[in-house]
Each structure stands twice: as C-alpha cells, then as structure tokens.
Amino acid sequence: MSLISPAYAAEGAPQGGGFEMLLMLGMFAVIFYFMIYRPQAKRAKEHKNLMSSMAKGDEVLTNGGLIGKITKISEENDYVAIALNDNNEVVIKKDFVTAVLPKGTLKSL
C-alpha cells in the first residue's frame, strides 16, 4: 500500500519551457558581470597603472600601513626600497603599495 496515489506522483512539478531557464541564467550572468567581474577588473587596471607610474621620491602608503618615501626602484624584480625615516629603510614588492600620497604628506604627520 502506497501513501501517495500514483496519479498525484506522476503529475509532479508543472512542466515549463527551457526558455525561462535560459532567461534566468542569462540574467545571472549579467548580474555577475556588472556586480563582480567589471569592478574587480577596473581595480586591477588602476593598480597596474599605479605601479607603473611610481617614481623615486614619491610618498607611498603600503598594505601594511607603512608610509614612506621611495628611495630605489628595481625594475628587473619589482621591488621598491622605502625610507620610513632617516634611519629606517624597508624593501617591499611593488604589489604591496596601495596609494601614492600627495607631496608633503610625511612632513604633515
């Protein structure tokens, strides 16, 4: 003895066309593009331009929160030497520089 009648079990979910499913997938793809992919690509392009425009003497902010002045730029291995003050200098990869600050920022701190 079955708890579900055969006629009800065979009926199942209403049959819809595949067009609605394709339309929904297309809408998800458009949302994904405008909400995730496009802003990320724009940020990556801006960061690449920032790294290529850095020059000796620029004041920069790193991902770790360090602020200093660029003293050396190594083109062959993408490292930058940053003077934090007169006595301390650190070497980091160019990728870790988040912003080039306006001139005179270090003196105002």
What's the topology here?
Blueprint: H1 6-11, H2 18-53, E1 59-62, E2 67-74, E3 79-83, E4 89-93, E5 97-101, H3 105-108
Antiparallel strand pairs: 1-2, 1-5, 2-3, 3-4
Architecture overview:
- With 109 residues, this protein is of the alpha+beta class.
- Helix content is 42%, strand content 25%.
- The protein contains three helices and five strands.
- The chain has a five-stranded antiparallel beta sheet with strand order 4-3-2-1-5, with helices on one face.
- It is elongated and about 80 Å long.
- The chain starts with 5 loop residues before the first helix and ends with a helix.
Describe the structure concisely for a colleague.
This protein has 109 residues and is of the alpha+beta class. The protein has helices at residues 6-11, 18-53, 105-108, and strands at 59-62, 67-74, 79-83, 89-93, 97-101.
The largest β sheet comes out as: 5 strands, antiparallel
What is the percentage of strand-forming residues? 15-25%
Judged by helices, strands and strand pairing, the structural class is alpha+beta
Helix content: 40-55%
Number of contiguous helices: 3
Rg to the nearest angstrom? Answer: 28 Å
Total beta strands: 5
Query: Could you name the ranges where pLDDT drops below 50 across 5 or more consecutive residues?
Result: none
Global shape: elongated
Strand order of the largest sheet: 4-3-2-1-5
Mean pLDDT across all residues, rounded? 86
